[in-house]
């Protein structure tokens, strides 16, 4: 789990600010990205809920499998994916 990504996700939780997270998630053949607002971060359960505002759908994403995150004004790791 990338502590920098978790801290940034917690910062944006509930703010209606769009972020993107990406990684190699279960069930996907290739790397996958999720875009939307951060609904909640569950560090005990190891997940973050990203709400896709286009399709009005929540995606629960494993914190351990997030490789990168982009947010307004930056990205982790620096420079993006």
What is this structure's SSE topology?
Elements: H1 3-12, E1 18-23, E2 32-42, E3 47-52, E4 57-62, E5 66-71, E6 74-76
Account of the 3D structure:
There is one protein chain. This protein has a single domain, classed as SH3 type barrels (Roll). The model has no long low-confidence stretch (mean pLDDT 91). 20% of the residues are buried. The chain is mainly beta and 81 residues long. The longest helix is centred in the N-terminal third of the chain and has 10 residues. It has 1 helix and 6 strands; from the N terminus they run αββββββ.
Task: Supply the number of structural domains.
Answer: 1
Structural class given helices, strands, pairing?
Answer: mainly beta
Shape: globular
**Span from first to last CA?**
16 Å
What descriptors fit this protein?
1 helix, globular, 81 residues, single chain, SH3 type barrels, 47% strand, mainly beta, six-stranded antiparallel beta sheet
In short:
This protein is mainly β and 81 residues long. It has a single domain, classed as SH3 type barrels. It has 1 helix and 6 strands, in the order H-E-E-E-E-E-E.
């Amino acid at each position: 789990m990338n502590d920098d990504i978790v801290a940034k996700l917690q910062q944006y939780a509930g703010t209606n600010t769009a972020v993107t997270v990406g990684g190699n998630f279960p069930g996907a053949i290739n790397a996958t990205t999720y875009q939307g607002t951060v609904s909640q971060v569950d560090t005990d359960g190891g997940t973050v809920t990203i709400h896709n505002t286009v399709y009005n759908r929540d995606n629960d994403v494993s914190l351990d499998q997030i490789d990168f995150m982009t947010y307004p004004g930056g990205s982790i790791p620096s420079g993006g994916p």
